[in-house]
Amino acid sequence: MIESFSIKGFKQFTDLFLQSLKPVTLIGGRNNTGKTTVLESFFMFYDRVNPEVTFRHLSWRGVGSIALDPDSLWSPIFHSYDMDNAIEMEVCENGTKEKIRIRHNREFQKAIFALPPNKGVMPKIETGQQALSTESLEFVYYVNDKKEGESHLTLDGHRLGMHVENLRKPLKKVAFIASGAQRNPMEDSARFGQLDIHGRTDSITDVLKIIEPDLKSLTTISQGDHALIYGNIGMPRKIPVSHMGEGTAKLLSIILAIATNENGMVLIDEIENGWHYSLLPDILKAIHKMANKYNCQIIATTHSYEIKKSLVRGLSYEDFSDISYIRLDREKGRIKPKIYESGMLVAALERGWETR
To answer: Which residues, in sequence order, are bridge partners of residue 104?
Structure first.
């Protein structure tokens, strides 16, 4: 489990240090204090060698199109849109520190192979290596301050590319569950298929019964190039889970992400959206149980006071030690965290203190 996370120069954060992260950590605060940005920074830290690494943040926020130029693609992730200053992120997990440094490289030299000019009827075939200068977004990775490789996201005309140098894949898998209707049903189908192959879908059905008690089974059904998850709720035909309501579809996305990211992390934006308050204790208890089963850390944003109260009602005293709450506040132009570990959070809720 990640115990702490620091962010420098990313979006609205000049310097943010989050500690006392738990198996389930909730992040609250007023609008525009960076709650979703924390989730995005976690995802960027682990989403390596992906040419769409900066696209994803935009799609989660509902941006439909963007110009293919460095300023449009890359400057939004830098503090104050200033690409002259580097971004740094560092996680601490079980005594090991992993760090990433991101900067705009205006003169990245990438190697290309070219054939020499044809000067005869039967030329000798050989290749030469030339250097081509282009712009890149440079990612350099460190483990305990030792460089562990780098990657370069390049933009050549209207083509994105990724160049990797001695970089190992991250050991931790991370999934992002966006708020509202930005989730991907095809991604859910692929995750359900991973579980179905091994006969591990019954627990998924049991959790969804919290919202849809008539649900008997789930299955994936292909229609052309697409596959969707359908459910049997006792009607003459199966129906897509998305037709069972926003809350059911969202809970399915979360549980599938947890079950297919063992020893990893699931990031949930605005966790309370789509669920009636009366169901929250049972839903949160089920999410905690699944996260514990798969050793999957949950980081979620929330605006809801009811979420924290529901955690207290839904979890046992022993389980509540797995919870922490971080409120982000803006003070003199900077974002600062206030940490509520489990005991402090319970005391605040019992006394009716404002923690949002």
So the answer is: 137
Distance, in Å, from the CA atom of 171 to the CA atom of 265, rounded to the nearest integer, reads 11
The pTM for the full model equals: 0.87
Q: CA 335, CA 32: separation in Å to the nearest integer?
A: 10
Question: Is pLDDT at 267 greater than 90 in this prediction?
Answer: yes
Residue 39 to residue 30: CA distance in whole angstroms: 16
Which helix (H) or strand (E) element contains residue 288? helix 280-293
Whole-angstrom CA distances from 266 to 87, 143, 178 are: 23, 22, 11
Which secondary-structure segment (H or E) carries 188?
helix 185-197
| CB atoms closer than 10 angstroms to residue 61 | 14
Neighbours of 20 (CB within 10 A): 15
Per-residue pLDDT at 51:
78
Question: Is a pLDDT exceeding 50 seen at residue 119?
Answer: no
Torsion region of 150: left, alpha or beta (phi above 0 gives left; psi -120 to 50 gives alpha): beta
Residues 6+ apart with CB under 8 A from 3: 19, 20, 21, 92, 93, 94
> CB atoms < 10 A from the CB of 173, how many?
16
Report in angstroms the alpha-carbon separations of 251 from 21, 236, 286, 316: 23, 24, 10, 21
**Distance between CA 293 and CA 138 in Å, rounded?**
37
Number of alpha helices (DSSP H) and beta strands (DSSP E) in the chain: 9, 16
